[in-house]
Sequence to fold (194 residues):
Amino acid sequence: MNQAVIDFLSQRKSAPIDLMGEPGPSDDEIATMIRIASRVPDHGRLAPWRFILYRGDVRHEIGRRLAELAVEVEGPLPEGRLEKERTRFSRAPLVIGVVSLPVENPKIPQWEMFLSGGAAAMNLVLAANALGYGANWITNWYSEVEAGRALLGLKPGERVVGFVHIGTFAGDIPERPRPDPARLVSDYRGPAEG
Ligand SMILES: Cc1cc2nc3c(=O)[nH]c(=O)nc-3n(C[C@H](O)[C@H](O)[C@H](O)COP(=O)(O)O)c2cc1C
Fold:
């Protein structure tokens, strides 16, 4: 048994993006995280996902464009909300987009390709935490808007699994209520009715 891994997984939680700071991961650490994120169950070995790095000045440019898009989608917005959009990608030093690329396959449903993407995102979060960084996996409104996905570098047909924000976070994260495992699990009692 590896008690250190059990403890690590038992205590894992997301860090608040607004409180993540420099330094972000180095190039070597990013390579480690991507390697771990790609090492996930993947029916048919399709590797139906890819990763986009958002770092440096482009994060501010993305914010400006997101603010413009928010106005296009919703109409005139108050300055506070515009500022929120402008800083969406520049709070943490690094954001990694996990992108699902579903393909037509005679045997493997696209649902399973999306699930594999979720596994990649979760491994990415765990790898970031294991390297000592805070991480937070979010999607937000622009993931569900085609123009938002295009702005963020996705091609038509690609879907956002998540934008994983990664940075240094040293504070305490309050525990949130967790589901009671006893209410989630049951022994099999035969086929479900109606
Ligand atoms: C697919 C997915 C999308 C999410 N999108 C958002 C989001 O847009 N905004 C948000 O505040 N949290 C979002 N979350 C939740 C954050 O990851 C949240 O901070 C996290 O679930 C906290 O729980 P943890 O401490 O167990 O990591 C999303 C989670 C998942 C799995």
In short: The two ends are 42 Å apart (CA to CA). The CA atoms of residues 20 and 92 lie 5 Å apart.
